[in-house]
Amino acid sequence: MNKIKIFLTVLCLAPLSLFAAEPGMPLDSVPIYQTDNESLQRGAETFVNYCLTCHGASFMRYNRHRDIGLDNEAEVTEKLILTGQKAGDLMLSAMRKNEGEDWFGVAPPDLSVIARAKGADWLYTYLRAFYRDESTVSGWNNLVFDRVAMPHVLYELQGEQELVVETVAGKEVKSLELAKPGSMTVSEYDQYVADLVNYMVYLSEPAANDRKQLGILVMIFLFGMLGLTYVLYREYWKDIH
Predict the structure, then answer these.
(1) Can you give the residue range of the structural domain that contains 103?
(2) Which residues contact 187 (CB under 8 A, 6 or more apart)?
(3) CATH code: domain of residue 159
């Protein structure tokens, strides 16, 4: 019985140990505004331009983006569909699994629920933590995900960063320094990535806003019923001493 308890405890803690053991730096907090349709639309356009080539979002259909302010399927097609697919199609990657394995050594994962798996702050920090590393196949590495197979697809926007290693109080401290500026300033790139992460959070649960609104209505209804129930209780028992 004790062995079973130990096994279940290790099994529950295993996913946490994977995150804890991963080398990286403290995560930066990302502002997430799921009701900001303009931010979500900007993030969606970034996603289809830079992410969808290698990564799929196979749980999502293009026409679902009408929920974030794209008025009709014509607008969805114009802004988001670059591969000749239809508005009702799933957001599938243009890259085949075996091609990804050949090029990167591992098939790029589907990003449908990546924000729920990793967390918004992890994604935000990760997309801003690439640096040049000639020892890797792609020529890139990442402070959050060491030896990552993915190249820095946004480097033309952010620029090229270099790793700086210092020793502080006998402890090795790693940081990044911008060696070659990109087409965006640091603040512009941070906002660009924040919009992308905001969209990826939406992508992980498109019905989240509806669910929250429904939850609020249900709570209002329950509190209203609680008041009516109390009034009814007082009415039934007012003549009983």
Answers:
(1) 25-205
(2) none
(3) 1.10.760.10
Q: Which two tokens stand for residue 25?
A: 């730096």
Q: Which two tokens stand for residue 51?
A: 């992410």
How do residues 46-103 score in pLDDT, each as one tens digit?
999 999 988 999 999 999 999 999 988 889 998 899 877 889 999 988 777 767 667 6
Find the helix or strand (DSSP H, E) in which 59 lies.
Answer: strand 57-61
51 is in an annotated binding site: yes
Asked if the structure places residue 4 within a domain, the reply is no
**40 occurs within a structural domain:** yes
> How far out from the chain centre does Cα 222 lie?
34
Radius of gyration of the chain (CA): 24
Q: Count of domains in the chain? A: 1
Burial of 35 (0-12, 13-18, 19+ CB in 10 A): exposed
Task: Consult the annotation and say whether 55 binds a ligand.
Answer: yes
pLDDT digits (tens, 9 = 90+) for 137-180: 899 999 999 999 899 999 999 999 999 999 888 888 899 999 99
Assessment of whether the complete model's pTM goes beyond 0.85:
no
The secondary element (H helix, E strand) that includes residue 202 is: helix 186-204
